[in-house]
Amino acid sequence: MRKASLILLLLALLGLPARAQESIDQIASAVDDHYNHLNSLVTQFTESYRGPGVSRQESGTLWLKRPGKMRWEYQQPRVKLFVSDGKTAYFYVPGERQVRRAEVKKLDDLRSPLRYLLGKTKLKKEFEGLSLAPDQKPSTAGDLVLRGVPRSLEQVDEVLLEITPENRIRRIVVREVDGSVTEFSFADPQENVSLPDARFTFSPPPGVETIESTDLAP
Hints:
CATH architecture: Clam
Radius of gyration: 20 Å
Mean pLDDT: 85
Low-confidence stretches: 1-22
Number of strands: 12
Structural class: alpha+beta
Largest sheet: 12 strands, mixed
Helix content: 10-25%
Number of domains: 1
CATH superfamily: Lipoprotein localisation LolA/LolB/LppX
Strand order of the largest sheet: 7-8-9-10-11-1-2-3-4-5-6-12
Order of helices and strands: HEEEEEEHEEEEEE
Strand content: 35-45%
Number of helices: 2
CATH class: Mainly Beta
């Protein structure tokens, strides 16, 4: 009887990696399916940054619309705007005399990959080594945390994705190779709401100079 129990235990242990991999596939597929059925998304966000000698927290509203349109409207502690029509992105602080502009395909920005969240989500393709992160405590009980290395951001060491039971992304933690950490938290999502394309366009105010740049970080 004891020998049979040991054999069953050994078989269970040998089967763990396959079941774990299947679980990751199922989770990633469910998240992909959720976002790929959305045409638009509006959500509140909190963005925090911790780096050498620097710490800040900001919040506002994020609008996303297929294909590849996004608008980050920072409201606290200072009003700022990051907006893209899918081809060109702008970063502007009201009252300043300059606005930064970049082609989206040349943009080196942690927010930029989120423009493809709707309609083209493929977590297994976007992240190398996607796996469960049992050592990371979720912010909300019942959520799962995944870990992976993004294929498109060379300056990033790893990314943590907190996934809700409804297959939504509640939180993204980005750890860069220089030791800095940027965290995005999302709340109160509104899905498939009507959003005019005009919300994702930007015209510099009179007297404001446009500067070409690949860095549109706050």
